Sequence to fold (271 residues):
Amino acid sequence: MDLNLRKFAKFVDKTFIEGGKKAKEPVILVSVAAVIQNPWSKKGSENANAEHLREHFIRRLTKKSLKKRSYMIPEIEIIAMDCSQKPLEIATNFEYVIKRDVDKYLKSQDIHNPLYHILLVEESPSGYLIGSMSLSGDGYNINCLIGSIGYDIRKPKIGEFKPDENLVESFEQIPLLGHIQDAKDWLGNKSGTRRVLREIYSWYREEEDWEKEFRTIDISNFTDLSQQVISTHVTHMFNLQNPLIESLGKRQYRITRLGRSIGSSLSKDQN
Fold:
């Protein structure tokens, strides 16, 4: 069997004085430890449950692609992070996996700027969020969603995790460093849009309910801006790749988490 040795450590303990008495010769204790890759990891419940979740998402995405008549079968790969549970080590390994994948696409020239969606669910290690922030700051095209799938897939035994029957989806995109910088750059010379976003943010602060939808007439009544002006700038903000405002249909809107971050920054700059 190939043990796949990951780390070898040796610890030497020399004792010169014990119980207040000096030893004639130092007492030496030597400890040796080897860290190997778990050869049974792919036989555990974590890997089996991840496989069930992979199949579930493939079915869901295939169904959506057929509705759009794109007829593309999605590919989802399970990649185990070959590292400890330390946040920074997970972040480093996660960044390496994404960067390696991007390099693969760039070399094959299949996709010039691949977009990655990172889903953080129950008890996901914080290292993935740290890695996502770092990748976004480095200019990689990455989105990060946080929410619930109803289970911690590491805990149910094999056969207990059935995503098709029990999956509870509640996902929300969280702003990353790259998104915040891109939004600030986009708003740079758009004084009118900056003001509308600032007024929308202030309206939400007054309402004390960030999940509440708004209409342009609500913001117009809250400020001295016309409904037409507000509507024009709101349209610009929800048509962005990473929108500051989301459209809920029937001329109803809601500020996104990214919009809240930028709106807060604009309000502080004004003060």
In short: The first strand starts at residue 5 and ends at 18. The beta strands are 5-18, 21-36, 116-120, 142-148, 170-174, 245-249, 252-255. The chain has three domains: 5-36, 80-174, 181-270. The two ends are 66 Å apart (CA to CA).
